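Researcher: We're teaching a course module on how sequence relates to structure. For the next exercise, students receive a sequence and then see the predicted structure as tokens, so they can try to spot secondary structure elements on their own. Here is the exercise chain.
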Amino acid sequence: MPALLLSATRPRQWSKNLLVFIAGLTSGDVFGFEVWPKLWLAFLIFTSASAAMYLINDVYDKEVDAKHPKKKYRSIASGQLSPSAALLAAAALMSISVIGVTALPKKSLLLLVVYLLMTLLYSLKLKSVRIVEILVVSTGFVLRIWFGASSINVPMSVWLCVCVYSGSMMIVIAKRHAELRFHDPKIVRAVVLKYKKKTLQITGFFASLCLITTYILWTFFGQQETLTDRLLLYFSCIPFIVGVSKFYHEDQTRGVEEPEEFLLSNQTMQISGALFLVFLVFGLYVNS
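Model: And here is the predicted structure for the students to work with:
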């Protein structure tokens, strides 16, 4: 039972919750010991909350997932884990996240409630509404950043928030594009069939362009209070642009059905990602 429950909470997706640490990294306080307990607590709270939402989503989609060639092997869809046990576990996880957030500022509680309600509505209804479902998923990424920022009481740059929102939109659009291009219409979700390939191509391009533009603007205007000399931070734009361009090219040619796997396994993405992190960290914390 514990193994089935763990599998149903999709541990591979927990990496998304690392976004809560962006606030600590970009605030200039990453070496301050006092921020890390709060950031780790924020990470655990969001992991618990998101795991609960995955369980509820899979219970709601049980019948549909059972007909899918891959999703039919999920714990709930396959019948190995009963819906009642999954919902009980989801209630426990949500309770843990709500109790845990009381140790953080009040704004964190508000953001957590917004995330839970939004994700619940997504599972029950909004995931079937074209365009809205992309916007909701993208908003979930930004809420993770705001939640991390609120946990340590630091402001977040509007450029950084728009950058993350654009990046998440680019990823979700690429996934929908791949589903529409390569999946059997009898298998893919009905909402995906409502999209047009050309529309996804165009919106994917503008999301990519917005991602690059807002990141560059953040490096120039998002950190005036914490940085005085940002040459290496400016250099981080180069591998960033390379990575985004590679992702968009892959989306338009071979398709990116599993964005997480592509980001972690493609050599160009690995090299550009490593260089990006080096320039970013040194640009933030070392005078160049």
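Model: If you want an answer key for the exercise: Residues 35-60 form the longest helix (26 residues). The two ends are 53 Å apart (CA to CA).
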